[in-house]
Design brief:
The protein is built from 3 helices and 6 strands; from the N terminus they run H-H-H-E-E-E-E-E-E. By secondary structure, it is α+β, with helices and mostly antiparallel strands. A 3-stranded antiparallel β-sheet has the order 1-4-5. A 3-stranded mixed β-sheet has the order 2-6-3, with no helix packed on it.
């Protein structure tokens, strides 16, 4: 069963439970109303409704409340889905807007690369762009996962190979990091690919 089907099944179950709770509330209110009607009937001289008419009136009232509740829930669900979609779009555009200055720096660097005779100035320019990009990632909550020399942790590291440990103190530790891993807050967005000593 796909994630979308599971969400739909969960939504349907939630609608059923909400409708059932609403029906129980309506039944309780109807019983209270019946009791007060019986008191009023005893007090007034008006002709009482037949039991069948009372049941029809209760059924109509419960159906009306059920339909209203289902419509309210459906509107709430649609509104929530739209809000989530807008939030995701907004977050994506925010990241792209933050990356545009880095792209501008790369373009300027490429233009000067053809004219530059000094390799040191090119290296300095690339370092500046790298630092700017690193600061942007840090502002967005992205942090590097420590790997080399750390104890292997399957929650954040992905072992691509193992090697015999050169010494006893390196057993179970990361010998080398082939590809850096990153976290956003507490969530791993890319596992660090590492070589582990055994």
């Amino acid at each position: 069963m796909s994630t979308e089907e599971q969400k739909n099944a969960a939504d349907e179950q939630e609608v059923k439970e909400t409708a059932q709770n609403a029906e129980e509330n309506v039944e309780a209110k109807v019983e209270n109303a019946e009791a007060s009607e019986e008191v009023k009937e005893g007090e007034s001289n008006a002709e009482p409704m037949s039991e069948e008419d009372q049941l029809k009136a209760k059924l109509a009232e419960m159906n009306d409340k059920y339909v209203r509740l289902a419509a309210e829930y459906d509107n709430y669900r649609k509104r929530t889905i739209k809000e989530k979609a807008d939030l995701i779009k907004g977050a994506g555009s925010d990241i792209l807007v933050g990356l545009l200055p880095v792209m501008d720096d790369f373009e300027r660097g490429l233009q000067h690369m053809t004219d530059a005779a000094d390799v040191a100035s090119l290296k300095e320019g690339v370092d500046i762009i790298y630092k700017k990009f690193s600061e942007f990632l840090t502002k967005k909550g992205v942090t590097e996962i420590p790997a080399k020399g750390e104890a292997f942790d399957a929650d954040v590291h992905e072992a691509i190979t193992t090697i015999p440990a050169p010494s006893e103190d390196l057993k179970g530790k990361v010998f080398d990091c082939v590809e850096k891993g990153y976290k956003m807050g507490d969530k791993v967005i890319r596992f660090a690919k590492v070589v582990v000593c055994q």
